[in-house]
Each structure stands twice: as C-alpha cells, then as structure tokens.
Amino acid sequence: MSYQLQGSILEVCDCNVLCPCCLGENADNGACCAAIAHHFDSGTIDDVDVSGLTVAVATFIPGNILLGNWQVVLFIDERATDAQFEALSSVYRGERGGPLGDFAHLYGKIVSIERAPITFELQGGKGKLDIRGDIHAEMEPYWNASGAPAILLGNTTATTPCSPAIVSKASAYRMKNAGLKIDISLSGHNATQGHFRFHA
After folding, report:
1. Where would I find the beta strands (DSSP E) of 2-117?
2. d(Cα 69, Cα 167) in Å, to the nearest integer?
C-alpha cells in the first residue's frame, strides 16, 4: 500500500497573520477554525490515478495544534470515481501512513467524509477555494521588495513539505459547517499557499 501525491495547497484559518499554529504556539483565539485543500497535479495511490482531483479538510482545532483532538470533515472531489474516493479516503484517514498519516494522528474525530464540488484556483499568486459555497476563501501573498511572494522557511508544523510556505492574507474567508458547529465570515486573516510532495 503506497501513495505518491504532488501538487498545490491552499490553507486559511481564523488566526491573525502570521498564524502561531505554524510554529506550534497556541492559536490566537484559543482555538483554530481552518480549511486546507490539496490539489493533485499528479498522484497515484497503489494503482489508482488521482491526478487532477482535489481533497479539502475542514477542521476545528480546540487548543494547541500539536495536542491533537482535531474535529475534521473531509471533502473529496465530486468527480472522483468510487475507486478514487475509497483510495483518497484511506490516505486521509491515515491508514496508509506517511505525512498524511502523521496529520491523521492529530484527529480526535472525523465527523464525516463527503463528496463535494471543490473549486481550487491559483492564478498570478492569487488563490481561491470554494467548497459547495459553505467554505469560501480568497487570498493573496505578501510581496517583498523584489516582487516575489514572502515565504516562511523551516516552520515547525509545515503543511507544505518540500517547499517554502507562501505567507498570504485572506480578503474573504467563510466557513459554515453544522458538523463542526462553525459559522464564521471574516476578512484579513491568515492564509498560506505552497506546494507539497507526499509519499509513503
């Protein structure tokens, strides 16, 4: 049982910029409401090709990120076949180990695993994520003096293995999920972009 997944990440939460969770510190609000999406430019799980699909994770983190007990809803691209859905579900449940298994060890409960239409766009440094209209985020990086995006290197709890995290701000962030008991609509909060390479 193995997987090779490579692509882009969009992440947003209700912490201020820069989110202290990325350094293993306590969330700004005592808890953190976050959405993380992985779009697979290329990917295989055993012999199942998942290239072109997207998986998103909506989370309520009740305290310090490293203490676990995250409450999680997994959204799997509605275009996935049954075989792709089952393969991706097993990876994100942590059953196949690797870096996504490490994340799954922090889950206290997976509230649900659902098919959903997921919009994932990265264009000119700007990112847009939408999951069924219930989760929506628009973000843009901070730019340095040379016109390149600002990056964070070597952070403790990196969600962008194999690449720097691009420090961003969400001009809009909406999350409404009954299972997680979350209903927020914010502007000007933390966001992250980057690339990943997961394998196990």
Report:
1. 3-13, 32-45, 48-49, 54-61, 70-77, 107-116
2. 26
* Window from 2-6, 9-13, 81-85, 159-163 with minimum mean pLDDT: 159-163
Using one digit for the tens of pLDDT, what is the confidence trace for 3-14? Answer: 999 999 999 999
3-state secondary structure 128-190: EEEECCCEEEEEEECECCCCCECEECCCCCCCCCCCCEEEEEEEEEEEEECCCCEEEEECCEE
d(CA 57, CA 120): 13
Domain ranges of the chain: 3-199
Torsion 122-117-132-55 (CA) sign: negative
Q: Which pTM does this prediction carry?
A: 0.92
